[in-house]
Design a protein that fits this description.
alpha/beta; 4-stranded mixed β-sheet; 8 strands; globular
């Protein structure tokens, strides 16, 4: 039924201008805005819609993952832009916040609305 549709995901924020700056300037994504909504244009042709929501409550799970070739480099670059890595597993995340407790290397951070994002190292 939906095999050939170009589906997309979305999530809410409490401040669209702040989100636009964060996703466009800090993370370097192509961001377009129309009708008060943001569209994050992802590599490969995918997109995510970011929409305003009154009384926004941040997601308690990861809403967007960014695969990277080198997680150390990605975390360092995010830190250079003032992005703070979140610590969820103190005994399994080093000083940079990279989870090394099994599975892929991953580090979490939040957007200005408090939604959880991650960088995750791709295995070859």
């Amino acid at each position: 039924m939906f095999k050939d549709t170009k589906a997309f995901s979305g999530f809410a924020v409490d401040d669209v201008p702040k989100a636009k700056e964060f996703y466009g300037q800090t993370l370097g994504l192509e961001v377009t805005e129309s009708f008060g909504l943001l569209r994050l244009h992802l590599a490969g042709g995918g997109s995510v819609v970011v929409y305003p929501k009154e009384n926004h409550i941040p997601a308690t799970f990861t809403v967007l993952n960014f695969p990277v070739a080198n997680i150390e480099k990605a975390v360092d670059e995010l830190a250079s832009h003032g992005v703070h890595m979140e610590i969820y597993f103190e005994d399994k995340q080093g000083a940079k916040g990279i989870f090394t407790g099994g599975g892929p290397l991953i580090a979490w951070f939040k957007d200005p609305a408090g939604n959880i994002l991650s960088v995750i190292e791709e295995s070859e």
